[in-house]
Design a protein that fits this description.
Chain lengths: ~300, ~350, ~240
């Protein structure tokens, strides 16, 4: 029982991480019907900003704030100046811009801060007694924190989309950009804002997830696996659904923890391959995911 | 003289141009064989990448199947060579066709989902494939050496006796191996894209529905070409294994390697013969000459800038841009049909009809 | 008094294809104008251009006699020109309420938006019953009502309607036209109707433009068009 609970807690922790980045992918996809391949690298760059500020003695909770602002600007500018001009051309062009952002941000992070792994300060202290004991399993404070922040982000986004005018406009653009434009929605601004918000959420998620994702340090490849898991989560739930991102992320996190724990053939380290299988399976069997409404492919 | 000069395929001027290109290639190869060992090593590395990118060009360029994950084929080819040499005692050069075969099959398997998954989603799948590949290598550590890497002993890399090279001239031997594989790859892709199959590939890329309604079997084209693409990149992987001697999946065959191949292809020029060569030169030499900039990360940033420049200014890559520059002076095109002028193909066909008539009504 | 909207020598099209060749039309305040023409004459293209959806390649749009630079849908809406597009004029994924709210996005007086929504719910009681329903699940007639109400939420001075009767039952069409006439009478909103159903449109219109392959072929009072047998035979088919 306690082993099961431990795995459940561990799965929930990584699940919450996947949810946060999956939300970023969903926000971009809802507005502009595309996947931002550089989503992970946006979060990487802003995580370095947080790390750097924390190293200068800024409290880590405060250090996240400028990182979020930088994230927002990066996302917004990338959409406005790089993605939008090529959107009408074809998907390959969007992908190439995504890859350019990917390499560019990854390289820039290494250029500024070096390619060695950085020990990352924790947002909550960890030690011998920073957990709650539940039936012999340890529920760490980190887990509680990341789940709480995930819940807060989801609640905030839900309120934002349903109660504010700009949220309404975003939903309108997600359904049909042309009709939304006829209602007077400035579609371009909405797209820019979506990309900005998406990168801002990523910037918040980065410092939370870096200590939780092996090896627990910040390195140039920290976000590769996170992007894959988040993509699997977002696809599983449906790329245009917030609810889907939550369910998909948690299901994937807990599912992988259980599979790696109980299916010994996989050697306990086949998470990425499992995520790959999930991605392929969803795309082949139910491309809209569990809660998605839109078909992914344009004929 | 009026520009551009039009050269028709099959005519003497066309053959002269072909001969000049081939001669330039031969001269370049001879020049490379006389280089200092280090520089020659760089050239060998460049040729390996050119083969790998030419492989990617088949799937991503000609058929339009976006792949970020060709690093996995490169790795698979390399480990095929490693395993066959270390565990089975094969001669290294003989593993090249084997690596091609293994990766061909793997490519066919990866190509199957591509029948239903398109565009960015396929790119996502290949990206996941690239990220998962090192994990798979680690899982089968008994064969691959796992995270500690796989070492191919120097002695087993001895060039075959018939080649005339000694163990000390291993690098020369590898260089010429690279020249042969690259030449073969370029020749095969050239012929392939000029054939009716090339037309089918273009049709599938531009408009699947129209392609299938004109009788092209999309499933076969896509799967087969993805297989061939993986196979060629796998052959490059085999050369890579011989070149490196030590194989680390975590180091050489990561997502970044896959992205590098795609960057090379886009910068060089998709759907061109020379694109992979130019692209390979970029991905091998730019990091080398910029290694002192930005803690070794300068090249990544530079690639990002070049990629953006290419996508905004020269969507067909450097080779494409050079191509259209050359086309201002010389245009090569298919020979005109000699029997009848194009406007009269109708009557020509109908005049052929009566001859078939008696066969139908004996 | 200058026209609410005047188009001078509009040239517009798609890609290399020019659909409108120097088309000039104008609508005065509180006027009802109908544009008639065969399929492919460029009627929908004209409305797209007037609403700022389609960029112009030539000519000018003037609102209240002032040239509009940079005509985009949001700019035209802010100037009081609203379009009910052909076919699905609603955001099918959003609820009825959200559609109406979205119609008021360009308005500054947020406080009065609620009042307006209530007004349109009184005009179209069936929408009120379905206020939380997703627009895509409404019947064709209800969707068209919603499209009109949504377009009216921006409190336009000119409403452009593209084939509002298309695919609807005659009873529903009749109902919609009665409402449009009321809107024009009570709110003073000018109407520019593009219609296949010429008979019905001519009943409420005061002026007519005939569009022929991208050019204005004829124009005049609705009365003269109703009475002119040759025009009826040639263009209206009855």
């Amino acid at each position: 029982m306690d082993i099961f609970l431990s795995r459940l807690f561990a799965g929930t922790t990584s699940g919450a991480v996947y949810v946060l980045i999956a939300l970023c992918l969903v926000m971009v996809f809802r507005s502009s019907s595309t996947i931002n391949f550089a989503q992970g690298e946006f979060a990487l760059f802003t995580s370095y900003v947080t790390w750097w500020l924390a190293g200068k003695g800024v409290n880590i909770w405060l250090a996240v704030v400028p990182a979020i602002l930088i994230g927002f600007l990066m996302g917004a500018l990338a959409e406005r100046w790089l993605v939008r001009p090529v959107r009408k051309r074809d998907e390959t062009a969007v992908l190439i811009v995504g890859l350019a952002l990917f390499t560019g941000l990854n390289g820039l992070s290494g250029w500024i801060w070096g390619s060695d792994e950085k020990p990352f300060p924790r947002m909550l202290p960890t030690g011998e007694d920073t957990y709650i004991d539940i039936a012999g399993a340890r529920l760490h404070y980190d887990t509680i924190l990341i789940v709480a922040i995930m819940a807060a982000v989801v609640a905030g986004l839900t309120l934002f989309f349903n109660k504010t005018s700009i949220g309404l406009q975003m939903r309108a653009v997600a359904t049909n950009p042309d009709s939304a434009a006829l209602c007077g929605v400035r579609v371009g601004r909405v797209l820019t804002l979506s990309w900005g918000m998406s990168a801002a959420v990523g910037a918040l998620a980065g410092p939370l997830l870096v200590p939780l994702v092996p090896p627990g340090q910040l390195g140039l490849s920290s976000m590769f696996p996170v992007l894959i898991f988040a993509t699997a989560a977002a696809l599983l739930g449906g790329l245009d659904s917030i609810k889907g991102a939550v369910v998909g992320g948690l299901a994937l996190g807990i599912g992988l923890a259980m599979v790696n724990g109980y299916v010994t053939f996989l050697g306990g380290s086949m998470s990425l391959t499992s995520a790959l299988v999930v991605i392929v399976a969803v795309l082949l069997v139910k491309p809209t995911g569990l809660f998605g409404a839109r078909r992914l492919e344009r004929v | 003289m009026k520009l551009p000069v039009i050269v028709e395929r099959g005519t003497t001027p066309y053959r002269a141009i072909l001969a000049a290109v081939v001669a330039a290639g031969v001269l370049a190869a001879l020049w490379g064989s006389g280089l200092e060992p280090f520089e020659q090593g760089q050239v060998t590395r460049f040729m390996i990448y050119a083969v790998a990118i030419a492989g990617l060009n088949v799937a991503t360029g000609y058929v339009g199947l976006l792949s970020v994950g060709h690093s996995a084929f490169l790795g698979m080819g390399a480990f095929t060579t490693g395993i066959l040499v270390v565990h089975q005692g094969w001669e290294p050069w003989a593993t090249i066709p084997a690596a091609f075969g293994v990766c061909l099959v793997a490519g066919l398997l990866v190509g199957l989902p591509a029948l239903r998954i398109k565009g960015l989603y396929l790119a996502m799948v290949t990206l996941a494939f690239a990220v998962a590949f090192p994990e798979l290598v680690a899982r089968f550590d008994g064969l691959t050496g796992g995270s500690s890497g796989m070492n191919i002993p120097r002695l087993s890399m001895r060039p075959p006796e018939w080649s005339g090279f000694t163990l000390g001239e291993k690098d020369q031997w590898l260089y010429w191996l690279g020249v042969v594989v690259l030449a073969l790859t370029l020749y095969v892709t050239h012929c392939l894209t000029r054939s009716r199959y090339g037309l089918a590939m273009a049709a599938v890329r531009e408009n699947e529905i129209a392609a299938s309604s004109s009788g092209i079997n999309i499933a076969v084209v896509k799967t087969l070409m993805f297989g061939l693409s993986g196979g060629i990149t796998g052959a490059a992987g085999a050369l890579f294994a011989i070149y490196m001697g030590t194989l680390f999946a975590e180091g050489s065959f990561t997502l970044m390697a896959g992205i590098t191949l795609l960057i090379g292809l886009v910068i060089g020029g998709e759907r061109t013969i020379f694109g992979p060569i130019i692209g390979a030169a970029c991905v091998v030499y730019i990091p080398y000459y910029t290694s002192s900039i930005g803690q070794g990360q300068g090249s990544a940033v530079l690639f990002a800038v070049i990629l953006l420049l290419v996508i905004f200014l020269a969507p067909s890559g450097i080779a494409g841009a050079l191509g259209s520059l050359v086309n201002r002076f010389v245009v090569v095109r298919a020979a005109r049909p000699r029997t009848a002028p194009p406007s009269r193909t109708g009557p020509a066909v109908s005049s052929a009809e009566p001859e078939r008539g008696p066969v139908l009504a004996p | 008094m200058s026209a609410v909207l005047e188009a001078r020598d509009l040239v517009a099209g798609y890609g290399g294809l020019t659909v409108l060749r120097e088309v000039s039309v104008s609508v005065d305040p509180s006027e009802v104008v109908v544009v008639l023409g065969a399929n492919g004459a460029g009627k929908s293209t004209l409305l797209s251009a007037l609403s700022g959806q389609l960029p112009l390649t030539g000519g000018q749009l003037l609102v209240d006699g002032t040239p509009v630079r940079n005509a985009r849908p949001d700019v035209m809406l802010a100037k009081g020109v609203s379009l009910v597009p052909q076919g699905r004029g609603t955001l099918t994924g959003l609820s009825v309420m959200d559609n109406l709210r979205l119609g008021a996005v360009t308005r500054k007086d947020k406080a009065e938006v609620g009042t307006d929504i209530d007004r349109w719910f009184t005009v179209f009681p069936r929408l009120a019953e379905r206020r939380d329903q997703v627009a895509g699940t409404l019947s064709g007639g209800e969707q068209q009502m919603l499209a009109v109400a949504r377009a009216m939420m921006s409190r336009p001075r000119l409403l452009l309607c593209d084939e509002i009767s298309l695919g609807l039952a005659p009873v529903v069409v009749q109902e919609l036209f009665v409402t449009l006439a009321e809107v024009n009478r009570e709110l003073g909103t000018a109407l520019l109707l593009v219609e296949q159903n010429a008979e019905l449109a001519l009943e409420i219109a005061s002026r007519v433009y005939l569009l022929e392959v991208g050019e204005v072929g004829a124009s005049g009072s609705a009365e003269s068009f109703r009475d002119d047998n040759s025009i009826r035979a040639a263009y209206l088919g009855y």
